[in-house]
Write a structure and sequence with these properties.
Elements (H helix, E strand, L loop, with lengths): L5 E5 L1 H19 L6 E7 L3 H8 L7 E9 L10 E5 L9 E9 L3 H11 L5 E9 L12 E5 L5 E2 L15 E4 L4
Parallel strand pairs: 2-3, 2-5, 5-6, 6-7
Antiparallel strand pairs: 1-9, 3-4, 8-9
Helix pairs in contact: 1-2
The structure holds inosinic acid.
């Protein structure tokens, strides 16, 4: 996008190292559990993190995708979440790992957790690449956090600004956002 300056905030190397650590921790957590495991990507934002993370989990599991569009980017308090893609298989009785790109207010995560709980999984483990603790409006249990960041708008590695910048291999900060 013309005129937008992005500075590198979290390098590709740091992301890969942390992703590996979380993948190893998840492998440990479920290695002796005989119930089926399903790892869910929340689209669109988590698709890059998800694809790197699942290759660090040394277990058998199913891959699922949930699409959500958050409409509180402009109206921060509305908390309206629209589901754009539903799960393709039941999760009842399964261990579920939910993979998010970023938890900002927590409203999307809250919505997703109630959606999943209603489908009676055996357990839900939450993973988010990024967390903005200062922006929290609703507390949600976050089991694995890649990086906690300050309350600034970030892009890259799956995260977008107006649909763009998802392809950046690092997490960047827009320097000149009004
Ligand atoms: P929450 O519901 O406020 O926690 O926001 C979650 C969603 O808002 C994320 O899944 C992102 O799609 C979007 N979002 C929040 N903060 C950022 C950001 O800094 N960059 C890009 N997207 C963001």
């Amino acid at each position: 996008m013309m005129g937008i300056k992005i500075s590198n905030m979290i390098t590709e190397e740091k992301i890969q190292k942390r992703t590996q650590e979380i993948g190893t921790a998840l492998s440990e957590k479920f290695k002796d559990d005989t119930s089926p495991l399903v790892v869910i990507s929340v689209l669109k934002g988590s698709f890059i993190f998800y694809s790197d993370l699942i290759r660090q989990i040394d277990l058998d599991f199913g891959c699922e995708f949930l699409g959500v569009a958050s409409y509180h980017a402009n109206v921060k308090s509305s908390g309206e979440v629209k589901m754009t893609l539903d799960l393709a298989t039941p999760i009842e009785g399964k261990n579920v790992v939910l993979v998010e790109d970023i938890v900002d207010t927590g409203l999307t995560m809250q919505y997703l957790l109630s959606y999943l709980k209603a489908r009676h999984p055996k357990s839900i483990t939450t993973v988010t690449l990024l967390h903005k603790p200062e922006a929290t409006q609703v507390q949600c249990p976050l089991d694995y956090i890649g990086f906690s960041i300050s309350n600034e708008f970030v892009v890259g590695y799956g995260l977008d600004y107006q649909g763009y910048f998802r392809n950046l291999p690092y997490i960047g900060k827009i320097e000149n956002l009004n």
